[in-house]
Amino acid sequence: MNKIIILVGLGLFTQFQSQELQKTMIPKISNEFEKITIQNSKKKNDDRCIETPEGRKEIFSASKDGYTLSIYFENSFYKSDKFYYKNGYIKNKSLSFNMGSSVGISYHFDKSGKFTKEENTDEGYEFKPEDIIVYCEKNKINLSKGYHDSGYQTRVLKQEFEGKKVWRISHQIAGDKIEEIILDGKTGKELQKKTIPFYNP
User: Fold this and answer.
1) pTM for this structure?
2) Which of 8, 40, 142, 189 has a C-alpha 20 to 30 A away from that of 48?
3) CA–CA separation, 74 vs 77, rounded Å?
């Protein structure tokens, strides 16, 4: 009886751990209106990376079309990307996986701040980012969390390959070599694996 209680307890603990891991890994975004203050945009318009007390790193940039705010989380494979019109109103916001392609739902707004549409960026991708994480762990591919401003980091991108939606994983296997792996976006099947030279200027 005691063994059963212990096993049930371990099962619940593992489930709780998994839920907590998901919470820390995937930031939350919504279709709610946002506005960025002009004071902040003037203060941060030099593309600096600012670290918040919560452990996030925020990169703010200004251009002739508006503003961009990318938020990196220390314990996450994801970051949030927010684009603002010149008037400071939110234009669109989405999540990116591994500092690369958008994943999940992307929300769009007009210049008056009205929510206009949502876009499912995962359409055609049944092999999810969570599956990419498992694949990389299984194949000993280092997938970095949080923000990195130097060194070669593994890159994971959504692309087209031979008429299919695919994931392209590029990771360093030696000082002068990169391995590129292409996985089918639906099944995760390896479609191509090759080694290419890496030049570090």
Assistant:
1) 0.78
2) 142
3) 9
